[in-house]
Task: structure prediction
Amino acid sequence: MEKHSWVKDFSVAVTVCDTRGTILEMNEKACRTFEKYSGGNLLGADLFDCHPEPARTKLKELMKSRAANIYTIEKNGVKKLIYQAPWFSEGEFSGYVEMSLEIPFEVPNFVRK
Result:
């Protein structure tokens, strides 16, 4: 099994960019999710060019602060959890990973001790 082959067909959209915002990787779900924006042809594209304001400024702030950004969205009757977080290689900041997963409108919350 190839080192990261599990992510290729993972049911969550995964997009990875470097520290300049260049899109390095997209799994199959991400390519389908962004199909109307060229899908897999976005590899090598500038992530900042893919976002209008104020999202572009938010991305620049995230790159600078290296903070995680977590929120939900609803579009076309589908609710998604968006999780954007920095990734590191050998301890060095290397860019961001975005995971977008479809979730039910009502999600149970369990408090564990």
Summary: The CA atoms of residues 87 and 96 lie 6 Å apart. The radius of gyration is 15 Å.
